[in-house]
Amino acid sequence: MEEAKESPGLSLCQQVSDFMRMVLRFKIDGTDPSLVPIPAGLSANMMEDSYLCVDILLRACQTINTYQTPWTLHELRNWRRGGRKKEFPLTAELIHPSVNGQKEVYRDTPCNVRDREGRIMCYYLPGILSQRRQRQLQTAILDLCDSSIQPLTLDPASGRHWRTNSVLFKDGDTMNLRMDPGAACYSPCWLEQGHPHSPPGPSATLMNNIANLTLLQDTQEVAALMGGILSIIHPALFQRGMDVWKTLYADPWPLRNGDRVRDLLDLWATPFTAMSVIANRETPHHRDLNGGLNFFDAILTFGTYEEGRFELPEIGRRFRYDRGTAIFMEARSLAHGASAVVGERCCLVLFFRPLMLKRELPEEEMDPEDVPMPTLGELRAAVRSD
């Protein structure tokens, strides 16, 4: 069977993935990473950012930067399904606690959180977005706000959906904000909610709004970098996402607005199936119930703000949520939230819709939600086998 053709966007993501994994393998094996062959298709900036991503990720995976829970993800899910009738040890402790024995108020250095079986369910990666990339993202959002009548959705306080309820957003009328408060989702192809049996197609935000197409172009390289990280921390999920997009790109015509899907996939540079932009909102503790079990979401933050905090209440941990931070986490199972800040904050969230990954799943492949979160040993072996 002939391999499905890659779009230009996915080709960029694959190049970033291959380069990051090679840099990581050189570092793990003790080889000078400057000897990594220079790929012809990557700019100097993309290579520099790839090195930064690998360095931060390696720091996060050090044993001294590891939290471990006394429970497994499977036990946590069973506890919820059982109606929480018994107490559950919802905590995580550092494998190597500080010498003086005092617990940190909040974490501000890279780390990972794994369950009792060693399956990593969260990576905290502060500083992984360079200043250049942060400026690029902020400019993209400001351009979006300037060029579109209503770039992001904001509902009245009486609205039922908390994600776009104005109560949680800064007041754009009284605070002279540069970034319009609100939230919006973008996908080149997904199933509309409430219509699981209809053909998938582009999100409404990407059908007729030229400004939103410009947003995809302006965030393309950052999306590719996040895809490269995913290829390291969850190779099977990365590959499944890439395979789905390649298949749809090769034969988009059965889809809803298939020609539009193909055009959008020329720009889409990540295995994630959707992206959200959230501007000037605090986020209450919640779980993303439309996400997939054992899937990673990528959450990036940027802007002009101070005093950001990101919380995982069931793990009993709070993280410093400075601009330039990325958090990869299993958001279906772990509750999480972000505090209000002083200044303006914007978040870019890359995530998967499970039904898209299960579309035309080959018989020999496992359901993506049944693939467990990888352990560090499994990830190390996968990189060395490249």
From TrEMBL:
Cofactor: Fe(2+)
Membrane-spanning residues: none
Annotated stretches, region: Disordered: 364-386
InterPro entries noted in UniProt: 2OGFeDO_JBP1/TET_oxygenase_dom
Keywords of the record: Dioxygenase, Iron, Metal-binding, Oxidoreductase
Lineage: Eukaryota, Fungi, Dikarya, Basidiomycota, Agaricomycotina
Stored Pfam families: Tet_JBP
Lineage: superkingdom: Eukaryota
Gene3D superfamilies referenced in this protein's UniProt entry, alphabetically: 3.60.130.30
Organism for this UniProt entry: Coprinellus micaceus (Glistening ink-cap mushroom)
Molecular functions per Gene Ontology: dioxygenase activity; metal ion binding
Domain 2OGFeDO JBP1/TET oxygenase: 212-353
Protein name according to UniProt: 2OGFeDO JBP1/TET oxygenase domain-containing protein
